[in-house]
Write a structure and sequence with these properties.
76% helix
Length: 245
C-alpha cells in the first residue's frame, strides 16, 4: 500500500506539471520515492513465488537475499532523505558524504599499495603459511596488519625475513597511510563547518519549494501534490473534481 502511494504521489506530481502553469522540479526526494516503491514492489512480488526448493538452493536464495538488501537500503534511504532537511542531521550526513568523496584517492592509493605488498608476500612466503597461499588471503592479511592485527608466527627459516617484511609494511601502512587519511578527514571536517550551513539551507529550500510553488497555483491543481503518502491515496476520489475545476 505504501509503495503504491509513493508511485501515486510521483504520478500526481507529473499530472500537476502537465496542467499547472509553474512546474515542480523532479527533486531528490521524488527519485528516492520511485526507487523505494519499485524495490519494495518487485521484491515482495518475487517473494510470493519462492518455493521450498528455492530456499534450499544456495544460488537462488543468495539472489533473493540481495533483493531484500536492496529493498532495505532503498527504504532507509527515504528516511535519510528527510534527515537532510533537519539541521543537525543534515550537516553530519553531508560531512560524511564529503569525507567519502575526498577519500576516493586515498582508497585507490591504499588498494594499490596493498596489492603490491600482497604480491610480494605471495612470492616470498607462499609455501610457509596459509595466510599467503593466494592473493585473496594475502591482501586480507596485509589489510589486517595495516589495522594492527598481525602475527609473526611462520616457519622457522622464514622468521627473520617475515619479521622485516611486516615491520616495513606496518611502518608504511599504519603510520603514513592511516595518518594521511586522518589528515584528509580533518580537512574535510573543517571545510564543512563553513559550508554546512549553506548546503543545509539549499536542501531545505529544495524541499519547501515543492509546496511553495504548489500553493501559488490558483486553479486547484495544488491538491495533487500537497498531500503526502499514504494520505494522497484519497486523491483517487477527488481527482475528477480537480480537473473539472
Amino acid at each position: 500500500m505504501i509503495s503504491i502511494s509513493l508511485l501515486w504521489y510521483v504520478t500526481t506530481k507529473l499530472i500537476y506539471n502537465k496542467f499547472a502553469i509553474i512546474s515542480l522540479p523532479m527533486d531528490t526526494w521524488s527519485m528516492i520515492d520511485i526507487l523505494c516503491a519499485c524495490s519494495n514492489m518487485v521484491t515482495m512480488s518475487l517473494m510470493t513465488t519462492i518455493g521450498n526448493e528455492d530456499i534450499v538452493n544456495y544460488n537462488k536464495k543468495y539472489k533473493y537475499n540481495l533483493l531484500i538488501v536492496l529493498m532495505i537500503v532503498a527504504t532507509w534511504m527515504r528516511l535519510v532523505g528527510f534527515l537532510f532537511v533537519m539541521e543537525s542531521f543534515s550537516k553530519l550526513i553531508m560531512t560524511i558524504i564529503e569525507m567519502l568523496k575526498s577519500a576516493t584517492t586515498f582508497i585507490f592509493i591504499c588498494g594499490f599499495y596493498l596489492s603490491v605488498m600482497s604480491t610480494i608476500a605471495i612470492c616470498l612466503f607462499q609455501e610457509s603459511s596459509i595466510t599467503y597461499s593466494n592473493f585473496l588471503y594475502a591482501i586480507r592479511t596485509m589489510f589486517d596488519a595495516m589495522l594492527g592485527m598481525y602475527q609473526y608466527r611462520i616457519e622457522k627459516q622464514y622468521e627473520n625475513s617475515h619479521t622485516i617484511f611486516l615491520v616495513l609494511h606496518i611502518y608504511v601502512a599504519n603510520i603514513f597511510l592511516l595518518n594521511y587519511l586522518v589528515a584528509i578527514l580533518s580537512t574535510v571536517y573543517e571545510q564543512m563547518l563553513e559550508k554546512g550551513d549553506f548546503r543545509f539551507k539549499c536542501y531545505r529550500y529544495s524541499y519547501i519549494e515543492r509546496y511553495k510553488i504548489a500553493f501559488k497555483d490558483d486553479n486547484g491543481y495544488s491538491e495533487l501534490v500537497v498531500h503526502p503518502p499514504p494520505f494522497n491515496m484519497g486523491l483517487i476520489f477527488i481527482l475528477p473534481a480537480v480537473f473539472k475545476k
